[in-house]
Amino acid sequence: MTGIIIQARTGSSRLPGKILKVIHDRTLLDHIIDRLAALQEEAVVVIATSTLPGDDAVEAFCREKGVRCFRGSESNVLSRYYECAKTHGFDHIVRLTADNPFVDVEEVDRLIRYHIENKNDFTESFSQLPIGVGAEIFSFPALERDMEQASMPHHFEHVDEYILENRDSFRFGTLRVPAEKNEPAVRLTVDTQEDYEKACYIAEHSKSGLADTQEAIALCLQYA
Q: Which end of the chain is more exposed for a tag (fewer CB within 10 A), N or C?
């Protein structure tokens, strides 16, 4: 079974509460969940948040939207992912973060297929797509090995750091994307107030309301 784990917390230092801020007509988390409704591959979506009281709002969001919620360590994100994946019995895990409202679900579908067909340990598209649009997927054995062998503080703060630093010891893959989407320098994540205002602009001017990657790139460049 494939799981899509969205890491989400309200305690951002640069833009507190950003994941529940409204972008045009819905919250940032709503944008992600609404996009994932178009996923063609079979996958279970879980929002993984922390056990801190401030993240009770994330659990409340999940209850309201009918989305699975898992709560774990705030600082040890690797452990949160591992325990979430283990609890749900996931064989493969797509990692998304709740500050990326423009995730490309078409490419997530392709990423899942490519990863499984090639029997990879870890496969990514984030090096190909705009910042905040790509994703990564890893097998549960790779995540378990990551958890067992991680040793530095940053390995636990970021799920993929150990794997990325030791990629030669994993079966590693990169999904190639269409040329019109291959803009890794374009920033479509929400980390600052400026990012938030740009995301609002893109959402407000999107013809569909859920801008695809090409439209989001065009509007991002127009905003600049």
A: C
Residue count of the chain, please give it.
224
Structure tokens at 94: 């797509």
Residue with tokens 């090409």: 214
Q: Quick one: what percent of the chain has pLDDT higher than 90?
A: 95
Instruction: Determine the pLDDT at residue 119.
Output: 98
Q: pLDDT, tens digit, for every residue of 105-142?
A: 999 999 999 999 999 999 999 999 999 999 999 999 99
Contact 114, 173 (CB under 8 A): yes
d(CA 123, CA 113): 10
For residue range 161-191, list pLDDT tens digits in order.
999 999 999 999 999 999 999 999 999 999 9
What's the distance, Cα to Cα, between the start and end of the chain in Å? Answer: 41
Give the chain's domains with CATH numbers: 2-223 (3.90.550.10)
Q: CA dist 59 to 7, 54, 139, Å? A: 12, 10, 26
Residue in the block written with tokens 């190909």: 128
pLDDT for residue 11: 86
Q: How distant, in Å, are the alpha carbons of 25, 68, 103, 110, 142 from that of 115?
A: 34, 24, 18, 8, 13
Position 65 scores a pLDDT of 96
Q: CB neighbours (10 Å) of residue 153?
A: 11
